[in-house]
Design goal:
alpha/beta; 277 residues; 37% helix; UDP-N-acetylmuramoyl-L-alanine:D-glutamate ligase
């Protein structure tokens, strides 16, 4: 089994971040190690308040112990991280990597045209440090625009704009770019997958529901599928299918996340044929 380290926060209640990544990466048949960047009582979407414990001070101590014990990883997958964690994460990626280890970055910092609360206007330039040298980055259109130094465009864009945006992200140092939330038709929503020479697309019927945590579900399935040898396009398509099925399986009154647990048999079955060549 490949061993992946995921670095992101723990929201104790709310289906997102590490509480999504650990079960879904594991369901892909990949050993999932974790490094929590913070512990929150619950996620910040829709709740009236939350606690927040910053664990940045633990990173160097954890890295030192891993180095002492020669603990290595075949891949790194980052999600929501704090500003002060960028450099410690890069250090861990450099010191605890097996040869050829993959770096998968979900630059979780913005959506719907604006940065998340708590991030200043200079944060995208810091997140770009994680994207430089990443094997795969998975920004939504708002995050992609901020990383590229552009104003977000959420509708009315063209394929040419999407592909130019992907090119700017490759220029940051990302080897493969997966843009999520792409739509050229009202009834379809999907991803643009670029390897720097071509851009391929995957679309699903748009579901008329906003749900918390779907980006974490997508990124976690993508990371696990890539570690199982799937191409970026195949991994993106599987990730989108799992997100759609999770949304469909979620009770309308369940507002704080999606019932991704119900998709685990489907996900395991999709990857049960062994590692792709």
């Amino acid at each position: 089994m490949k061993r992946l380290l995921t670095i992101q926060d723990v929201s104790c209640v709310g289906q997102c971040s590490l509480t999504v990544a650990l079960p879904l990466v594991s369901a892909c048949g990949v050993e999932c190690a974790v490094l929590p960047g913070a512990v929150l009582s619950n996620h910040t979407g829709g709740f009236t308040g939350w606690t927040f414990a910053d664990l940045t001070g633990e990173f160097a101590k954890v890295e030192a112990k891993w180095r002492e014990q020669s603990i290595k990883f075949d891949a790194f997958y980052t999600g929501y991280v704090c500003e002060g964690q960028i450099e410690p994460i890069l250090s861990i990626m450099n010191s605890c990597a097996n040869p050829g280890a993959l770096r998968i970055v979900d630059p979780a910092m913005a959506d719907n045209g604006r940065l998340y609360a708590g991030f200043g206007p200079d944060f995208p330039s810091k997140m770009a440090r994680l994207c430089d040298g990443a094997d795969y980055i998975l920004p939504n259109l708002t995050e992609a625009a901020f990383l590229a130094g552009e104003e977000p465009v959420l509708e009315g864009y063209s394929r040419e704009w999407i592909e130019r945006l992907a090119g700017k992200l490759h220029a940051l140092g990302a080897r493969n770019v997966v843009l999520t939330g792409v739509s050229f038709e009202r009834g379809l929503l999907g991803s643009a997958v670029s390897d720097g020479t071509k851009v391929e697309y995957d679309f699903n019927p748009r579901l008329d529901r906003m749900s918390h945590g779907t980006g974490d579900v997508y990124a976690s399935v993508f990371a696990g599928a890539v570690l199982r040898g799937r191409s970026a396009l195949d991994a993106a398509a599987l990730a989108a299918d799992v997100v759609c099925e999770a949304i469909k399986a979620t009770d309308p009154g369940h507002w704080y996340g999606v019932s991704f647990e119900k998709t685990i048999p489907m996900l395991s079955a999709a990857l049960s044929g062994g590692d792709a060549e």
